[in-house]
Amino acid sequence: MISSVQTPSQKNNSRPFWYEIHRCPNCLALNARLSERLARLPEHSALSKNHYIGGRYENIYIALADLPEMRVVIDAAITRAAEILACEADRLRMGWWLNAMRPGDLTHAHTHDDNDELLSGAYYIDIPKNSGSLVLMDGEKSIEIETCMGMFVFFPPYVLHKVTRNLSDYSRLSIGFNVGLSATGK
Ligand SMILES: [Fe+2]
Predict the structure, then answer these.
(1) Are 179 and 135 a contacting pair, CB within 8 Å?
(2) Within-domain flag for 186
(3) Are strands 172-181 and 46-53 parallel, antiparallel or unpaired?
């Protein structure tokens, strides 16, 4: 049984605390399809929404059937998460949601440790220039990450994080996620 996130790179890590950046291989075309489908998705297709802060829902839950391209992202995330957690991929499941930041929006500081999650992260679909950076915070330590399309950032669920204001004229699209153990696999 895994009791906590293993951080294999911690020993020789010059960063203030553990996180990992991972690139989704060959995901540019995938991101274009994800963006296109999201633009056509009717408002009512959201399964649920939460974190209503600053005039918007920061988390929008969408059925995989409405966004089938997410399967590639889920598989890539779980494959890498299994390596980070040193366990078999078929023991893991992933919950995910869309974060769509319009011009002027930001994402307020939050953690993902509400449940028995092992690893958290984000995947970046469409990141216009100056549309916001990811800030990870652990106590007094913080790090700002300039994200880009096709990037994953993994971090422990307890790490407080936020996204700075979208100063571009375009929407910023990312996926937030949690990875945990599943008896039935992903
Ligand atoms: Fe988050």
Answers:
(1) no
(2) no
(3) unpaired
| CA of 111 relative to ligand 1 center, distance in Å | 6
Domain extent, residue 52, equals 20-181
Q: How far is the CA of 26 from the centre of ligand 1 (A)?
A: 24
Cα(99) to centroid(ligand 1), Å: 9
Question: What's the confidence (pLDDT) of residue 25?
Answer: 76
pLDDT of residue 185: 45
Phi and psi based region of residue 139 (left: phi greater than 0; alpha: psi -120 to 50; beta: remaining) = left
Cα(86) to ligand 1 centroid in Å equals: 23
Q: Is residue 83 part of a domain?
A: yes
- How far, in Å, CA of 62 to CA of 108, rounded? 21
pTM: 0.88
Residue 1 inside a domain? The answer is no
In the reported structure, the alpha carbon of residue 134 is separated from the centroid of ligand 1 by a whole-number distance in angstroms of 9
